[in-house]
Amino acid sequence: MIVDAWMQHPTERFLAQPWLASLKRWTRNDFSGALPLAATLRAMDEAAIAVGLISAWSTPEGDLVSNDEVAGWVAEAPTRLVGVGSVDIRHPMQAVREVRRCVRELGFKAIRVLPWIWETPPTDRRFYPIFAACCELGVPFCTQVGHTGPLRPSEVGRPIPYIDQVALDFPELVIVGGHIGYPWTEEMIAVATKHENVYIDTSAYTLQRYPEQLIRFMRSHGRNKVLFGTNWPMIAPRKALEGIEAAGLDDEAKRLFLGANAARVFKLDVAAG
Which end of the chain, N or C, is surrounded by fewer C-beta atoms within 10 Å? Predict the structure, then answer.
């Protein structure tokens, strides 16, 4: 079973954001027009993705993908899609109430907030009520680590000091750092090794682009710590998985990476084999 830990089913207002210009240039795709849900499910089918976690996007400009839109797509494909909520950090009590609604009413399995979208590190005081709510509800906090592909500053994606400090302040908070952490991958591996509840997902990178130190981590003591992800629609699942057999993962490491780790971390009601 393969689980994609980071997808989004994008709205037209999401795809119209000017900060996506760099990703459109890299992928040679202007992502124009609406993307039907069937296209996302078809991309999953082409790579035998059993379950995808699709995320809302809350930003200073408003909801580019709203929690209710995500809930609607999950309702259309409940055996294939799992919701990940997002909140506006500028209004902490509203954010806490929305986290609770996402989990208790919408059935979401995680919350994702991207520091670069707010140009604010995750150690900012406005994040801390969100972390506390995630701990209270027993859901992971997902975020981006590493440089920012979109045209926004990257410094807030440093694993050290930011993710390290959050994990020290909230040791029971499950943190999933997406996008590998490059060019600070060794920092991210160190933080994931140090903290029991810190994980890495590989979204936004194809297997051929994984740093060698990450592959070594996945083969050895980090086999329980890394989750497969794509960042669809920026990378198609089939493309993201090319080269899996050449990665040198034994059967158990591959099983954990492709699905079992995500099933455990996100408490998914699916078979993890």
Answer: C
> Are 86 and 55 a contacting pair, CB within 8 Å?
yes
Number of domains in the chain: 1
- pTM comes to 0.96
Helix pair angle (185-194, 212-219), 10° resolution:
20
User: Looking up tokens 């996402």, which residue turns up?
Assistant: 102
- pLDDT of amino acid 34: 78
Each residue of 128-157: b (16+ CB within 10 Å) or e?
bbbbbbbbeeebbbbbbbbbbbbebeeebb
Question: Is 251 inside a domain boundary?
Answer: yes
CATH for 59? 3.20.20.140
Pairing mode of beta strands 49-55, 81-85: parallel
Residue 120 clears pLDDT 50, i.e. is over it: yes
Q: Domain range for residue 101?
A: 2-265
